[in-house]
Design a protein that fits this description.
PMP-22/EMP/MP20-like, transmembrane, alpha+beta, transmembrane helix, signal, membrane
Length: 164
């Protein structure tokens, strides 16, 4: 039971670090052109080492931002509830931590799915190669860790199937 608690906390910390890094870095997409390279994230676009915030943010970027922020907040809540599981209160913090982790995973899945779906065929120029990069993959990497965190927290069961 202690191993599940510690494992769940470690997975939640790692997930939170991955989500925050993905959220605030600008290597989601990289475009390699014949003479220049550009990269972009959820908050800014960079070309020739000059980064600017786009004047108009499309709806799918706003949705990705919103769901990733919600996912990070739910992950932080899951971590907080996991840490406070030793405090005896009328509501099971193990159950709440597990629900928060699965909620964070759902928000992350929505965010990453929206971004992937909208960015998949973004390149219309044959001379430019557009690829997903490490910030994007960090967002996807947080998803299975959140599922494992929620599952390991759900595995902290007492006798008779009651949440402890």
């Amino acid at each position: 039971m202690l191993a599940c608690s510690v494992g769940s906390c470690l997975l939640a910390v790692l997930s939170l670090l991955l989500l925050c890094t993905a959220l605030f870095t600008d290597y989601w997409l990289v475009a390699f052109g014949p003479s220049d390279t550009a990269h972009s994230g959820l908050w800014q676009e960079c070309r020739a080492d000059v980064c600017v915030s786009p004047p108009h943010v499309t709806g799918y970027i706003q949705a990705t931002r919103a769901f990733l922020i919600l996912g990070a907040l739910a992950t932080a809540a899951s971590l907080l509830l996991s840490v406070t599981s030793c405090v005896h209160i009328p509501v099971s913090t193990n159950l709440l931590a597990s629900i928060a982790a699965f909620t964070a995973g759902s928000c992350t899945l929505l965010a990453m799915g929206v971004y992937t779906g909208e960015s998949w065929h973004k390149n219309q120029d044959g001379q430019i190669q557009v690829t997903f990069q490490w910030s994007f993959y960090l967002g996807w990497a947080a998803l299975p860790l959140l599922a494992l965190s929620g599952e390991s927290r759900a595995g902290v069961l007492g006798g008779g199937g009651q949440w402890v």
